[in-house]
Write a structure and sequence with these properties.
It is a single chain. This protein is mainly α and 289 residues long. The chain contains 13 helices and no strands. The protein folds into 3 domains: 113 residues, Four Helix Bundle (Hemerythrin (Met), subunit A) (Up-down Bundle); 117 residues; 55 residues. Helix 4 runs antiparallel to helix 5.
Length: 289
């Protein structure tokens, strides 16, 4: 009876997705629902929602296989994601790991769609992750909050940086510092949840709203190219010195990562590699442009 009920629930969810000429969009929306169900199922210890989520992901995978919208190479790339995703969900792995793979699939699916649709989904994902982070902060779960805000920046905001920089480079730099450094420092120093939430709402989410409007205006041609600041400013000697220092730090962290990987400490190796990028390489991107 339970299995039949779960299957009926899957059918009910699928009825909410009318056939679309853009199958990638439909599949992306199915995955979005699956992601939310999985998150709720894990958070609330609800096995039924987890089962429905896995079934929806399986439906999405089958839709890709049977669609003529994707060529063989694209199907192969997407299939690799599902090969990683479905076992994670069956094993009830952490939400962030599942969310990251689903986000990657969605980004692959929207390659041929409009920029505005793509960006809209990324903004929604970032806002959702910060919403989850605020919940974790209120529960004094700083480690989980740090994981969520890191994902908001590293796995999502990165895809918006180029477009934001073309419209307002100063705003981009401010957002990078706030999302990459400030918020993580506050969490790692275990500032009061209320102070961190105020910073998220008053600084990060407000700037996200501003940047979203900028991209919308730029897409509709409401801004003149003359008003857009150039990102190709001369590199100063101080920046060059900073780059050299950061490169040394990156080298040290990557050597540590290789040692950890050789010792089969894959979790630590992943953390070191991520730190090399997030805490060091990010600081030299602008001077290198």
């Amino acid at each position: 009876d339970s299995i039949e009920s779960d299957l009926n629930s899957v059918s009910k969810y699928l009825e909410g997705f009318p056939e679309s000429p853009q199958k990638g969009q439909t599949i992306s929306e199915i995955l979005e629902v699956a992601n939310k169900l999985y998150r709720n199922g894990i958070s609330n210890n609800n096995p039924s929602e987890q089962v429905i989520a896995v079934n929806l992901v399986d439906v999405a995978s089958n839709m890709i296989d049977s669609s003529d919208e994707f060529d063989l190479q694209k199907k192969t790339e997407l299939r690799e994601f599902f090969i990683d995703l479905i076992p994670l969900m069956n094993q009830k792995k952490e939400i962030a790991s599942v969310d990251k793979i689903i986000t990657s699939i969605q980004q692959e699916l929207v390659v041929n769609e409009s920029i505005s649709t793509d960006n809209e989904k990324i903004y929604d994902k970032i806002e959702d992750l910060y919403g989850q982070a605020k919940i974790e902060l209120n529960n004094n779960n700083y480690a989980k909050a740090d994981e969520l805000v890191t994902s908001a920046y590293l796995d999502n905001f990165e895809f918006l940086e180029s477009d934001i920089g073309k419209s307002d480079h100063s705003l981009l730099e401010k957002m990078e510092v706030n999302m990459r450094d400030q918020i993580r420092e506050m969490i790692q120093e275990k500032k009061s949840p209320q102070d961190i939430i105020v910073f998220i709402d008053g600084s990060i989410l407000e700037d996200l709203k501003k940047s979203k409007q900028l991209l919308s205006d730029a897409e509709h041609g409401s801004e003149s190219d003359k008003t857009k600041p150039s990102v190709n400013e001369p590199v100063t000697e101080q920046q060059k010195l900073g780059v050299r220092s950061d490169i040394d730090t990156i080298r040290d962290k990557l050597e540590t990562m290789l040692s950890q990987y050789s010792d089969r400490d894959y979790s630590a190796a992943f953390t070191s590699a991520r730190s090399a990028y997030l805490d060091s390489y990010e600081h030299i991107e602008v001077p290198l442009r």
